[in-house]
Amino acid sequence: MNKKIWAGITILVISALWLSIFLSKSRKPLTVGRKLPAAERIVSLSCTTEILCALGAEDKIAAISGIDEENPYYGLLKNKPAAGGGIRNVNLEMVLGFKPDLVFCWKGHADILREKGLNVYSVGTYDVEGVMELILDVGRLAGRENGAEEIVADMRKREIKVKDKVEDINNKPLVYFEAGTVGKSRGPGCLTHNLITAAGGINIAGEERVPFPLLSQEYIIDKNPDIIIVEEYGASPGEIKKRNGWQNIKAVKNNRVYRSYTYFTSYVPRCIEGMEQFAEWFYPEKEYR
């Protein structure tokens, strides 16, 4: 077999290896005997943008989906081109124009990007453990393994501290989490539910069969939660307290209605702050940080 044929076979094997990594349903790259080259030109259309910045890999980012001014990395990212993603459509022409060697995106956008021949890592729905695995994956693909391991080690340490504090508590509070609009909540299979239970609470949507259930007001009132948490872009605690029929809910009567930063329940390293804050709201007599 001549050298040209061997070279062709080698190229095919390497290409197949990369494709298997990014098309894997498990999300995780394959374990191989040697390091794969780190991605150098990344389009990040999901929560991975913040993870990349936390890893110090913002210089590798060619384009993002967008950035809020409240984000701690706004200064680093404000001049990055926005190529859609998130709740917006992906600008395929723009993404292709950047010639990325890796695209991070939400699962719903993955197929159309792969159809264009791009290497894609799709982000799904995670619990805290899944967020840590995501951080490790991003670290490996961006060539920032050590930084990712340090971040995850810190998250695990803080998670253990919270869980140890609430482990032996018997009378746990009932918690209603409101995601923006009345009744829109979070159930098993999503990060918010995991954070509530890890922090020692009982989610009133914990028996729902879907991760993002819509609860009726009658159900919420009947459950009579001890604590209400609402995401920052939703109703204010004052508005919630004025809702018809909500005045006798324990959380309202005892002034235990709290507003949650969006990043508390996002798939980023800072989600561990959400767990700590939830625990402080649930059991204010204890220290968690």
Structure description:
The strands form two sheets. A four-stranded parallel sheet has the order 2-1-3-4, with helices on both faces. It is globular, with a radius of gyration of 22 Å. The chain has helices at residues 3-23, 48-54, 74-77, 92-97, 107-115, 128-142, 145-166, 191-198, 217-223, 237-241, 250-253, 271-282, and strands at residues 42-44, 61-64, 102-106, 120-123, 174-178, 202-203, 227-231, 257-260. Helix 7 (145-166) packs parallel to helix 12 (271-282). Mean pLDDT is 87; it is low at 1-34. 42% of the residues lie in helices and 11% in strands. It folds into two domains: 35-124, 3-Layer(aba) Sandwich (Rossmann fold), CATH 3.40.50.1980; 159-282, 3-Layer(aba) Sandwich (Rossmann fold), CATH 3.40.50.1980. The chain is α/β, with parallel strands linked by helices and 289 residues long.
Number of domains: 2
Low-confidence stretches: 1-34
How many strand segments?
Answer: 8
Question: Multimeric state of these chains?
Answer: single chain
How many helix segments?
Answer: 12
- Broad structural category: alpha/beta
Cα end-to-end separation: 64 Å
CATH architecture of the largest domain: 3-Layer(aba) Sandwich
